[in-house]
Automatic annotation (TrEMBL):
InterPro entries: Cyt_P450, Cyt_P450_B, Cyt_P450_CS, Cyt_P450_sf. Belongs to the cytochrome P450 family. GO terms for molecular function: heme binding; iron ion binding; monooxygenase activity; oxidoreductase activity, acting on paired donors, with incorporation or reduction of molecular oxygen. It comes from Streptomyces liangshanensis. The keyword Ion transport does not apply. This is Cytochrome P450. PROSITE patterns: CYTOCHROME_P450 (PS00086). Gene3D superfamilies: Cytochrome P450. Keywords: Heme, Iron, Metal-binding, Monooxygenase, Oxidoreductase.
Length: 413
């Protein structure tokens, strides 16, 4: 389908609105045909630059003059009421919004508590949670799979990992979703999360437990170069939002992709050993983190043949870059192939901000898809794919609801 007239040329402005996001894979493919970088009106209302090419994305994410420090764009950010990334404010005070040595310090401190071993130890518990959710699927053989499976599984996992009490989980799911919806007034959601986390941190300091927030409190109180109170809250906020919102939507995207390609689902059911590689292919095909967080030009610079003045806002479309990743000769990036060897993608970013939680995300996705495919063999969409509603704004991509129907549910092992 040809590009719509308002976005038909290299110099035109791409509007990242609900219609664009609903058709994102097609729209990004059209943009890549035109050029690697485009002027854009972002969901936040900011004017910026959108990088859609794989190689340019890798360059942008490691460019020494494209920083997380928003100071050069302060006036533009203030004009749209954007919450600046400062310690104790918005999504600030954590490693995703830090540069250089500050990022290294924060990441090292967080890594001391959020280790790959801690994530791997969750494997049996993740399987139990997935099995419990399948056990409770509606008896009338129809459900919204987002509400009944793809959302509650990561919420439960991250809540248990962090030590969030069950009575607070509904609120932090709602607040974390709203916090990433950059077109809305997300201040109340961010304030709610900050308040919840401040209360939890105070409780863990008095009554420490074997959970991640208690571990981070120990880092705050004891470690050399420790986390400040604002950094502690900001880090917990990052782990809540990035630790489950990304997986909620990736699971939704993955299940939808398999339902739209039933031959691929059958292949996975028959050959479950393909699942780890299939998760990489699904990350390449339709990742949940559609765009990386903003970068700001600290000086005038050239990127992809375009001159970007100091203060420019740059957004890397990770989903587009993943579809544009190098492939074998004759392979089609628009085709879902769960048997594809060594699928390359940028779903977890690139450079110093490569996702710390990638091992946990992979484990959750592999386990959840294994349980769902094995125990619900007759799963199918209850609506046409064109009727699926997508998240309309912000950096996430995922279905808002996933109506399905199914036959008999197999017993757990």
């Amino acid at each position: 389908m040809p590009m719509d007239p308002p976005e038909a040329g290299e110099g035109a402005v791409v509007h990242i609105d609900a219609a664009f996001k609903a058709a994102a894979p097609r729209r990004y493919a059209e943009l890549r045909e035109i050029g690697p970088i485009h002027r854009a009106k972002l969901s936040s209302g900011l004017d910026g630059w959108l990088v859609v090419d794989y190689h340019l994305a890798r360059q942008a994410l490691t460019h020494p003059a494209l920083l997380k420090d928003p100071s050069p764009a302060a006036d533009a950010l203030a004009s749209v009421g954007y919450v600046l990334n400062q310690p104790g404010v918005g999504l600030g005070g954590q490693m995703l919004e830090a540069d250089g040595q500050e990022h290294t310090r924060l990441r090292k401190l967080v890594s001391a508590s959020f280790t790959p071993r801690r994530a791997a130890d969750l494997g049996p518990r993740i399987r139990t949670i997935a099995d419990d959710l399948v056990d409770h699927l509606a008896a009338d053989n129809s459900a919204d799979l987002v509400e009944s499976f793809t959302a509650p599984l990561p919420v439960t996992v991250i809540a248990e990992l962090l030590g969030v009490p069950e009575e607070d989980r509904h609120e932090f799911r709602r607040w974390s979703s709203d916090a990433l919806n950059l077109s809305a007034d997300n201040r109340s959601a961010l304030a709610g999360l900050h308040g919840l986390l401040a209360r939890l941190v105070a409780d863990k300091r008095t009554h420490p437990q074997d959970d991640l927030i208690s571990g981070l409190v120990t880092v705050h109180d004891d470690e050399e170069g420790h986390l400040s109170e604002a950094e502690l809250i900001g880090t917990c906020l990052l782990l809540i939002v990035a630790g489950h919102e990304t997986t909620v939507n990736f699971l939704g995207n993955s299940v939808l992709a398999l339902l739209r390609h039933p031959e691929q689902a059958r292949l996975l059911r028959g050959t479950p050993g393909l699942l780890p590689g299939a998760v990489e292919e699904l990350l390449r095909y339709d990742t949940s983190v559609e765009t990386a967080t903003h970068r700001y030009a600290a000086r005038d610079l050239e990127l992809g043949g375009r001159i970007l003045p100091r203060g420019s806002v740059v957004v890397v479309a990770l989903s587009s870059a993943s579809r544009d990743a190098p492939m074998g000769e004759g392979e089609d990036s628009g085709v879902l192939d769960v048997s594809r060897p060594a699928a390359r993608h940028m779903s977890f970013g690139h450079g110093i901000h490569h996702c710390l939680g990638a091992p946990l995300a992979r484990l959750e996705a592999t386990t959840a898809l294994d349980v769902l495919l094995r125990r619900v063999p007759d799963l199918e969409l209850a609506v046409g794919p064109e009727e699926i509603d997508w998240i309309p704004a912000g950096m996430m991509r995922g279905p808002i609801a996933l109506p399905v129907r199914y036959g008999a549910v197999e017993p757990r092992d």
